[in-house]
Amino acid sequence: MFRNTISKRYYSSAEKLLKTPLTEAHIELGGKMVPYAGFEMPVLYKDQSHIDSHNWVRSKVGLFDVSHMLQHTIVGKDSANLLQKITPIDLSTLQPFQFSLSVLLNEQGGVIDDCIITKHDDQHYYVVTNAGCREKDIKFIKEEASQFSDILHQTFESTLLAIQGPKSQEILQKFTNEDLSKIYFGNARFVQLNNGQLIHLARSGYTGEDGFELSIPSSTPEDIKKSVDFFKTLIHEYPDVVKPIGLAARDSLRLEAGMCLYGHELNEEITPIEASLAWLIPKSRREIGGFNGSSKILGQLKDKSSVTTRRIGVTSKGPSPRDNNKIFNEDGTIEIGYITSGSPSPTLGGNVAQAFIDKKYKIGSNIKIEIRGKKRDGVIAKLPFVPSNLYKP
Question: In the chain, what are the domains?
Answer without folding.
Answer: 23-67+158-256 (3.30.1360.120), 308-384 (2.40.30.110)
